[in-house]
Amino acid sequence: MLERKIDNIIHAYFRELSNQGILAEQVFLYGSQARGTARADSDIDLVVVSQDFADMTPKEKWRKLGKAALNLNEPIEVLPYTPADIQKSMKREGNFIRHILSQPETREYRPFKQ
């Protein structure tokens, strides 16, 4: 049941990101929610991959990501990356993103096709 709730929140977050002008290509869920060890006060840890981040200032990026999470009223923590950033990170040993994405419990989401 909790897994389905998280799935619904993530797909709602895709929609909120789109409303903010961010077309997410992928979202990865990691951390306690992905491992199934979350507590009632656990946040939802996400990596959002979008080419749109390449053209945004850091301030604009964080404002839009924060507004999307605020609109859902959910405890979402986001790490934003472009596809090129992900590719570079995957080539570097000891990189945090490489570590996250190599974990078997990390779950990938893609937007629903409309």
From TrEMBL:
<protein>
    <recommendedName>
        <fullName>Polymerase nucleotidyl transferase domain-containing protein</fullName>
    </recommendedName>
</protein>
<dbReference type="GO" id="GO:0016779">
    <property type="term" value="F:nucleotidyltransferase activity"/>
</dbReference>
<feature type="domain" description="Polymerase nucleotidyl transferase">
    <location>
        <begin position="24"/>
        <end position="79"/>
    </location>
</feature>
<dbReference type="InterPro" id="IPR043519">
    <property type="entry name" value="NT_sf"/>
</dbReference>
<dbReference type="InterPro" id="IPR002934">
    <property type="entry name" value="Polymerase_NTP_transf_dom"/>
</dbReference>
<dbReference type="Pfam" id="PF01909">
    <property type="entry name" value="NTP_transf_2"/>
</dbReference>
